[in-house]
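Quick question, first post here. What does this chain look like in 3D?
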Amino acid sequence: RKYFRGKMSQTFTLYHERSEADGSITVRADRNVMPGDQIFEDYGDIDNSLYLEAHGFVPNENPFHCAMIPTRFVPSPQQMPNLLLNAMISLKLLPGDERYMYTPNICILEDGSLSDSRAEAYLTVAALANSDNDDLVSKCAEALESNDNEFVELQCLYYVGSQNFLKHSIQKMSLQTICESKSSLEQDESLLNILISQQESKKSSNKNIDDITKKSLAVKFRISDKRILNKVAAAAATDSQGGTNCSKIDELSVTISPCPIIKNDVTISSKNIEESLLLKQFNKFIDSLDMPVRKIQAALVGEGMRLGVVAKEDINEGEAYLSINASSVINVDTAISRNVDMNAILNQMKLLPESKKDGGFDILVLYIMYEKFVLQDESKWHPYLDLLPSLTETKNSSPLFFENIIYDYAAGSDLRIKLIRNKMKAEDSFLSLSRNKVIMKFFGLDVMHRDNFFWAYTIINSRSIWWNGQRHLVPLLDLVNCMELKNNAGSVAIPHQTLLYDGHKYAITKASTSFREGDQIFENYGQPNDIYFLYHGFILENNTHDFDRWNINELDGKNNMELRQIKKSLTERMQKYSATKRSLSCNDLDLPFRVPIMNIIQIAETEQIFFERALAHVTSRISKDD
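> Answer (accepted):
Ran it through. Tokens below.
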């Protein structure tokens, strides 16, 4: 099921509830209504065809409507080359028995996407048949021979430029449908106005009114289709007057061109004036918290880091620079609301056996969504929450928001699998909450939607500081940026630690190296780059922890047979990466995503460096044993 602009409509089940006790139905208003106003309802994310067939009307505006493409413009399985037919069977887009193969319905939404994700996948694979790039087709064939499902998916579905080929197919089908129509959008709109006038004039006599009404409905439905198709087709074929140019159908083509490599020095645009005001508000808020030790302060630091923390005085290695009362942080225990209904939801979640799972993650996500998007400025935490990355900033930096096409730059590596699994986990969590009637009734659709949930999900994942098996959001401390530092002895400084003292009442953080007054404070988070990117959206150029998850010395305890199996596995993984490796393409993505893509490529290449080392080590061990 597709989301509409990050929201999934739950309007019917949210506002229509059947009592299990007596079978009665309660209907609630889905908007505010003044006395004497007509009551309207949102019927949900349904297409105009259902409104027409089941209810006998067509809405004036319906963002959930999609325009159906005639099947003659859609490549059928029978027209498909055997190679692509086998790819679709392998990807479970088609059944293995030809008798049950059919052309999927292609219905285009106003944003140019399709209403069915399986139909999108079908068209993407089918687009290879019209590709002039023989290399793409041969790579798909090679993947099919490997019988590796992930390899087939990467080479036949998520191939280089796949999104552009899909977009091209959708635009071309839209243009074909418009150009073969017997009337234009303008003609239909003019006809509808005439029919409406005729309806008004004949109401008094009641003559032929039914026939005119039926015609009006048919034309209105046709217009809703053509508005979508014209919008989608216009992006590819527009004439000098701004109309649709049907002569361009056969000229439409897709090219994939390389881009110049851009240095990873793009900084987040800092709205200095606004952030300075937020910073003043935040520092005033910090003054109200119980922090016996506070030798640091928040500051605008730039250099791609936006905000950070600087030393207010000289700080020696091992010296405490911040201590904070546990009551001054956001955690499961302090997630308490003055709102009775919200508090009931939180308390109910805390009673569940899984509530402490992952440090209280789900409770904290829901709590900061309420504080940020419902209470807003009335939240006691708002000076802190307002200073955190905004939804827009998070969309541009958090991999959770990225389309899968960006993940494909890690093709053949472990990182791609981790990115996909992390998004699937977040999607499942969102769907679970969106199906909870109590939560949905309390938050409403304007707050409980995918973007807001993903923002909160990213904040808890990226900013949690752990102690006593729980996650904590710690104002000021979580603004400390990450960097691998040297201690006073010249060795790599130890990773950040937060310790408890005074009967677990206070949490204290000590400096891992020395800082001078005015220096930016950094901490080593002690993680490999794939974890940094997965949850934080950045990588470190110099990171000694990058190979921590791979220990070559562990291979020394393996026998000869195990080593040969490891060698085979390493060789296959390196070959898959080599075959699926992506290069940066101007056609694929906008400039803001170039840096994340380069980070993805760097992580994947680092993984291959380890595999090369491991393969050399294993090969050497096998030679010695032989």
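The two ends are 56 Å apart (CA to CA).
The longest helix spans residues 594-625.
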